[in-house]
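Quarterly update, task 2.4: calcium ion-bound model.
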Amino acid sequence: MKDMKTKPRLLIIEDEEAILQGLADVFVYNGYEVETAVEGISGLEMALQGGYHLILLDIMLPGLDGFSICNKIREADRHLPIIMLTAKTSEEDIIEGLQLGADDYVPKPFSVRELVARVAAVLRRSGKLHTDMQAFSLGDLVIHPERLSGTRNGKEILFTRRELEILVYLSSHGTRPVSRQELLREVWGYANVDYLETRTVDIHVAKLRRKIEKDSSQPQLLVTVRGEGYQLKVQG
Ligand code: CA
C-alpha cells in the first residue's frame, strides 16, 4: 500500500474550470496534494501513471467520458479508489458507475463538506482493508481481504473494495441480519440515507451474489431476510 503518512495525493478530473479550481483549493486546504486534468484522455494517462491515493472523476468530459476512464483504470488497478461526480442524479448513471467499479459517487451540486468527508472515509477504509484484515472462510469460499479476492476450489474470484467491505461487515455480524440503512451508514459512511442510496446496496449485493453464489437466483450464502436486511449464512 501507498504511504499515507505523507500527504494523500488526489487527482481531480473535471472540465468545468470553476468547479475544478474550487475543489482543488478545498482539498489543498484540507491537507491534500492535488493534481488536476480538464480533459478525459490526459486525465486517464495521469491516473494510470499512478502514485495517487484517490481519483475524483467527473462523468461528462471532453475526450473520454468518466465511465470509460473508470473502466480503464479498473482494468489496470483494482485498488485505486475512485469517486464519481455525477451531474445527473439519474439512477442509471449511478448504477453504471458502480458497476464499473467506482467506490462511491457524489451527485452535483454537492456540498463540499460532504465530499471532503466522503474522500476521507474512502481513504480510511482503503487503508484499513490492507492492514487490518486476515483471511477468513465463508463455507467453501476463502476470502483474502488484502488481495480483494476469494478462492473456491482453487479458482480465484475478484471483488471490488466495496463488495469486499460488505462481506467483511456482514461476516463480522454473525447470524444477525444487517439492514441496508446500517450498511450505508457503516460501510459507505453515509450520514443520511435516501431511497436512491438503498438501491446501491441492492446493486452491490446482486453483483456479490453473481460472484459467490453457485446459483445467484437461489442465494445460499448471502441471503435476504424479509423486512430486516441481508445476512451471511454459513453452515458448519
Ligand atoms: Ca463535466
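Highlight for this quarter: The radius of gyration is 18 Å.
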